[in-house]
Write a structure and sequence with these properties.
This protein is α+β, with helices and mostly antiparallel strands. The protein is built from three helices and five strands, in the order αβββαβαβ. The chain binds guanosine-5'-monophosphate and zinc ion.
Length: about 120
């Protein structure tokens, strides 16, 4: 998709701190990190969001989780622990509509959602 921010990161048209670059997935540091380690794992081809994944490639989610675990090892947070998260839609706080898995860690992350 020509006007997609994350597609442009995959193609190298927009710079990012890429930590992993595989044939089907890419991982790069979030520009506005919410934890000492905050990395986004994305499919290299454009998938809009998690509701859409089945329409594209049955293996890509597994590969994204595999990439997340590999990157967690590389970042030294595999033993201390981490959180993997997809946002979707307005209530989920989704901002960029290219499927991405958040990898967060490096400190105690606290409650999973803001308490009411
Ligand atoms: P969402 O809210 O859609 O689940 O997450 C989108 C994430 O992308 C946010 O955490 C935001 O900080 C990150 N982000 C937005 N624009 C850029 C960018 O240009 N570069 C990088 N590396 N991250 C970005
Ligand atoms: Zn895209």
């Amino acid at each position: 998709m020509s006007d997609c921010l994350f597609c442009k990161i995959v193609s190298g048209d927009i710079p990012a701190q890429v930590v992993y670059n595989g044939p089907n997935t890419t991982a790069f540091r979030d520009i506005n990190p919410q934890a000492p380690v905050h990395i986004l794992i994305i499919p290299n081809h454009h998938i809009e969001h998690i509701r859409d994944w089945g329409a594209y490639d049955n293996n890509i989610l597994a590969e994204m989780f595999q990439t997340a675990n590999t990157v967690a090892e590389m970042e030294g947070i595999a033993d201390s622990g981490y959180r993997l998260m997809f946002n979707y839609g307005a209530d989920g706080g989704m901002e960029v509509y290219h499927l991405h898995l958040h990898l967060l860690g490096g400190r105690m992350l606290g409650p999973m959602v803001v308490r009411q």
